[in-house]
Structures are given as C-alpha cells and as structure tokens.
Design goal:
By secondary structure, the chain is α/β, with parallel strands linked by helices. Helix content is about 45%, strand content about 15%. The strands form two sheets. It has a seven-stranded mixed β-sheet, with helices on both faces. Bound molecules: 1,4-dihydronicotinamide adenine dinucleotide (NAI). 1,4-dihydronicotinamide adenine dinucleotide binds next to helix 5, strand 4 and helix 9. It holds the Pfam family CoA_binding.
Length: about 220
C-alpha cells in the first residue's frame, strides 16, 4: 500500500524518467539491475535513487538490486498508469495536430478521443482518424465520453475561458500548453508544459559554460 505522506514534486518529476529507463531495460530483457548500474546509466547517484524509491516503501533488496519488471510495474502504479485516460485537445493548430499525431501517448494509456477548434476551415478535417469538432460541441462531448484530461493548445487569451468551461463540464486534469497561468478550483489538476522554459534553461547553462571558458582563458 502507498503511504499517505506527501511526496515532493521533485521526486514525482523524476519518476517518469525511472519508468522510461526501466521500460527500456525490460525491452532488452534485463531481469535485474543493481542500484549502482541503474545510477550509472541514469547519471543519478545510487543514493538519490534509493531515497526516491524509499518514499514509496523501497523496492530493492540488499545484494540483489532491483527486479526490473517489478519496479517498472510499481512505478507505473505510483504514476497511475494502470488507469486509462481519455484526452481531448483544444486548438487543432500546429501544436494540437502534432500532439494528435503522436502515437506513444496511447501506448501509455492516454487515449486521444477528440480534437476541437473554432476555425470552420478546420472543423471536419481528419487527423489520424479523428475528425476535428466544433468547440460548441465540447460540453456534451466531455460528459458523454467520460473525458479526464484536456490539452490546451489554443491562443493564451482564449485559454482561461475555455479552461473554466471545461471544468464546469467536469474535466479534472488540464495539460496546459498556452503560456498563461490558469486560476482554477483546487480539485482541478493543472500541468503546465512550456518548451520555452526548457530552452531558456538550456540557454542559461550554455551561457554559463561560455562565461567559465572565457574566465579560464
Ligand atoms: P496555432 O495558431 O497553429 O493553433 C491554435 C489553434 O487554436 C487555431 O487552430 C485556432 O483556430 C484555435 N483556437 C483559437 N481559439 C480557440 C477556441 N476558443 N477554442 C478552440 N480552438 C481555438 O498555434 P500553435 O502554434 O499550435 O500554438 C497553440 C498554443 O500553444 C499557443 O498558445 C502557443 O503559444 C502555445 N505553444 C506552447 C508551446 C509550449 O511549449 N507550451 C509550444 C508551442 C506553442
């Protein structure tokens, strides 16, 4: 059973990476792995891995390491991946269509059920077998199709109103790509994804390295 204690966001954010690595190991028929080897592959200290996994009761055995399949399944459970999630995408432009075209979401249990847009030229167009629907149909669609997650890939000015309409229709998870903070009720989970933030972090690290090099000259 999972303990009820609060797990830090930093730990949660590292779990998908463990899950991905373990999935790769499984695909390569690796049955068990020592924490040292896992740490070398992932470039994370063995103690970090142990500490992270100890939050959930720990899964390693002294002298054995980790059973890859067991750990993979347990981390999957912690991440809630034994459930299937019905997803809709709001805004079927460049990003919305790119997400709809990505097949790996389904492999992890995130099923794209619908794509919505306001543009009449897009409504009716098919993306990977899904017809883009008019945004006016959204409320009924969410209710009738038991939609759990909405990806927001529409202009930022439109995102708050659409998000609040979605919440009224019963959506509990928002995957927000629009570069704006959403103020929604506490029981709604918002995960913001900002590629530009990641690029700026990259830029920071590059510029820091460059500065260091110059200082050393
Ligand atoms: P786009 O202009 O190609 O697509 C936006 C789509 O939203 C259009 O088809 C438009 O008709 C539709 N739309 C507008 N109002 C709507 C409404 N009320 N309901 C439903 N659909 C509506 O733009 P793109 O490049 O796909 O970007 C979409 C959003 O994602 C923008 O807010 C952009 O800033 C953001 N973005 C975020 C990234 C990230 O890393 N978080 C990366 C790229 C884009």
């Amino acid at each position: 059973m999972l303990p009820e204690k609060k797990i830090s966001t930093a730990v949660i954010k590292r779990l998908p990476r463990y899950y991905r690595y373990l999935g790769d190991l499984l695909e390569n028929d690796v049955v068990r792995i020592s924490s040292k080897e896992l740490s070398e592959r992932m470039k994370v200290t063995a103690s970090q891995i142990r500490q992270d996994l100890n939050n959930f009761g720990g899964f390693g055995q002294q002298g054995y390491g980790y059973n890859v399949e067991h750990l993979y399944k347990e981390i999957g459970k912690i991440l809630g991946l034994e459930n299937k999630y019905n997803v809709i995408i709001i805004g079927a432009g460049n990003l919305g269509q790119a997400l709809a075209n990505y097949t790996d979401f389904e492999k992890r249990g995130f099923i794209v059920k619908g794509l919505f847009d306001v543009n009449p030229r897009l409504v009716g167009v098919e993306i990977r077998g899904l017809e883009i629907k008019d945004i006016d149909e959204i409320e009924n669609f969410v209710i009738e199709n038991n939609i759990h997650i909405a990806a927001l890939t529409l202009p930022k000015q439109k995102a708050p109103k659409v998000a609040s309409d979605l919440v009224k229709a019963g959506i509990k998870g928002i995957w927000n790509f629009a570069p704006i903070d959403l103020n929604l009720p506490k029981d709604v989970v918002v995960e913001n994804v900002h590629l530009l933030d990641s690029l700026m972090t990259l830029s920071y690290t590059i510029s820091r390295k460059e500065k260091k090099k110059k200082q050393q000259k």
